[in-house]
Write a structure and sequence with these properties.
alpha/beta; Rossmann fold; five-stranded parallel beta sheet; 7 helices; 5 strands; globular
């Protein structure tokens, strides 16, 4: 007798169908990511620039985007994710970048509402785990917006829990960036005071010598 699939089995089967778009202007990066993910049964698409990515999003049902932050055409990855979410609100975005400056992090939080910000060189296991969670988030977002009926209340509660975790992480990141900016400002002020003190000491020494 064949067992009846549970709601969780159905959920897992469905979210794994979510399509992932990788965007980077370096073909070697795209090749490496595809190689890292080749055994994970991901449905992958790739694009070399933001324009190509947006064109693909218009033609295909893309659910997760993994993109570089800095691309040569002038559009940052955060702007690409912002434009992508206008086209398809359920898209979950992940930034993969060599840059971790506060201004990029704040832009990712406030404008692009990224699910994760990973720094190159990436950790393979972390990347795979992050993509799987992003697939689940996108699928649950589509459920919430009526694309599919909810099969289990626990799934919706899980979705709410993920949202709360993301919001908490974003708030903590904002606080960390703010503290970093304050520390940088204080360091500049200390350096300025140090220079002024050094100049005053030199002037006093000259007066004594005279």
């Amino acid at each position: 007798m064949t067992a009846t699939p549970s709601p969780l089995d159905y959920f897992t089967k469905e979210w794994r169908k979510s399509n992932i778009l990788i965007v980077d202007d370096e073909p070697m990066i795209l090749d490496q990511i595809e190689q890292d993910l080749c055994l994970e049964s991901f449905e992958l698409y790739r694009a070399n620039c933001a324009e190509e990515a947006l064109d693909l999003i218009r033609k295909r049902h893309i659910h997760v985007i993994l993109c570089d932050q800095k691309m040569p055409n002038g559009m940052y990855g955060t702007e690409l994710l912002h434009q992508a979410r206008i086209l398809r609100p359920y898209i979950v975005g992940i930034i993969l970048s060599a840059y971790s400056e506060p201004e990029y992090l704040m832009d990712a939080i406030n404008k692009a509402r990224v699910f994760a910000y990973l720094v190159k060189p990436w950790d393979k296991k972390e990347l795979i785990e992050c993509l799987r969670k992003a697939q689940q988030m996108s699928y649950l977002s589509r459920i919430e917006n009526g694309d599919k009926r909810i099969f289990d209340l626990n799934l919706y509660e899980q979705y709410q829990h993920h949202h709360e975790e993301l919001e908490y992480t974003q708030n903590m990141l904002k606080q960390a960036v703010s503290e970093l900016n304050d520390a940088q400002k204080s360091l500049k002020e200390i350096r300025g005071d140090s220079r002024q003190g050094s100049s005053a000491s030199e002037l006093s020494l000259k007066l004594v010598e005279e």
